[in-house]
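Cross-check.
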Amino acid sequence: SSYEIDIFIRNDLTATSSSTSSTTSKSFTSLSAGDYNARVRAVYGDGTKGPWGWNVISRLIGSTLVLQSDFENYTGLINAGYTSEVGASTFIQQPSQTNPSAHSSVANGRFFSNSSASRSAYQATAITPGSANYTVGGFVSCRSLTTTGQIGVCGRMASGADTYYFARYTDNAGFSLFKRVATTNTQIGVSYSRILQVDEIAKLELVMNGTTITMLVDGVSRATGTDSAIASAGKPGMYTAGVDASATAGCHLDSLYMI
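Predicted model, tokenized:
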């Protein structure tokens, strides 16, 4: 058997680069900067081709990655042994939270809630941003539709308090941008009511530049505002809440990065 492997520019089904390989891994060169999807399928000895399998690639070619978590080669609690692929960071639960520290897990290359507890956020302990102006992003997906599931990315996470900015997706509702100061959430800007369908993927980014805080969805600004409540660089991280999900159900974060 052999394998066909294609690389696609995100949301464009015209193959940018294609290859046949004897393994399910392949290196591609001379790709332009951007976000990419990949797919692979088996080609059997009799020439029969299997179904395509998809994988999200969040390498953001051309950008300088400070942190990247693809959640590969690990299964378990996010704060019990996982280390990011870029930045070599572990994750700890945000201080002053009352939810169990075992609230969130990694499996099948995805981060998700494993409990119906209301909320948990985790910061990357080894990452120290050079300034308070940076972007935290990730690819959000839904493996099944729920009524309360939430997943998101965080920035300027304080080391001693439950304080940070975050952009999140809420299942069956859409995207929104918040600040959290001493356990109190305040929305910034307006909500963006795009609803993801099962297995649909969206790139969610939190952009912090001085007092301008912006949420991008697939590269388009969907919420923005001016806020000076959290000025320190803090840490990047991720957020989940509201539903007992699993590796095959609920809202997931397929990758996390900081640039």
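Residues 57-62 have pLDDT under 50 and may be disordered. The two ends are 39 Å apart (CA to CA). Passed to J.P. for a second look.
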